[in-house]
Amino acid sequence: MKELSLQERLDMQKSDAIDRILIAESQKEILWQYHPDNPDAKNLVATYNNLEQIVKDAEKELEELS
To answer: Which of 4, 14, 20, 27 could disulfide-link to 8, CB 3.0 to 4.6 Å?
Structure first.
């Protein structure tokens, strides 16, 4: 297996750092939707309950289709 050059290693490190930034920013955007300082914050409990109902409905639909 070919050993990576210094430039290739640096490029990989830069790419990894960019990936971490993108992941963290994406997570921040999601969390901001529910953050108490957000004047338009969504209700976390209501959102969670809605997702639970969506799952239950989809599970029931799959059961009926089987």
So the answer is: 4
Phi and psi, residue 20, nearest 5°: -65, -40
Quick one: DSSP state of residue 3?
P
Chain segment 21-41, per-residue pLDDT in tens: 999 999 999 999 999 999 999
- pTM, two decimal places: 0.70
Alpha-carbon distance of 19 to 9, in angstroms, equals 15
Nearest CA to 4 out of 18, 20, 19, 12 is that of 12
Going from N- to C-terminal start, the domains of the chain cover 6-65
Q: How many Cβ atoms are within 10 Å of 42's Cβ, its own excluded?
A: 13
Q: Which of 26, 4, 3 is nearest to 18 (CA)?
A: 26
CA 34 – CA 52 distance, rounded (Å): 17
